Amino acid sequence: MSGRGKKVAPKQKSQMSRSARAGITFPVGRIHRLLRKGHYAERVGTGSAVYLSAVLEYLCAEILELAGNACRDNKKQRIAPRHILLAVKNDEELNKLLAGVTISDGGVIPNIQASLLPKKTKAPKDDSIAKDVESQEF
Fold it and tell me: What is the separation of C-alpha 137 from the centre of its chain, rounded to a whole number of angstroms?
């Protein structure tokens, strides 16, 4: 009997990702790695990746919600690039943010200038024709 007794294994901490800790679905670790490898700055803080992930997730959710509404308006089940373009161009703030962006297969916003539309003319009302026709009483 050596008297050492049983060795108690230290309790392992349950591994929790930074995305789960922040309560977002976008990958915080991956964005942090891309910020470091992209040489955007000499030093990158830990909170910057969390903040950028949250902003990207919000923008994604906003665009997808509007694109889903455009998809439902066109009686479709799937979101196509056309629906994303319609969502972005019809929203004032997203249109300003993505002003220089071309969405492939998105098409264009339907628009006809007012000067190209046919001019509306008022047809003269001919009440004289109606007066000439009398009832056929004998």
Answer: 71
Q: What is the token pair recorded at 47?
A: 């909170």
Return averaged pLDDT per consecutive 10 residues of the chain, 138 residues in all: 72 88 96 97 96 98 97 96 97 97 94 90 66 66
Q: CA quadruple 78, 81, 85, 88: dihedral positive or negative? A: positive
Query: What are the backbone angles phi and psi of residue 113, rounded to the nearest 5°?
Result: -70, 145
Rounded to two decimals, the pTM is 0.74
Nearest to 28 by CA among 19, 16, 40: 19
- Measured from the Cβ of residue 52, the count of other Cβ atoms closer than 10 Å reads 17
Closest CA to 97 of 63, 123, 135: 63
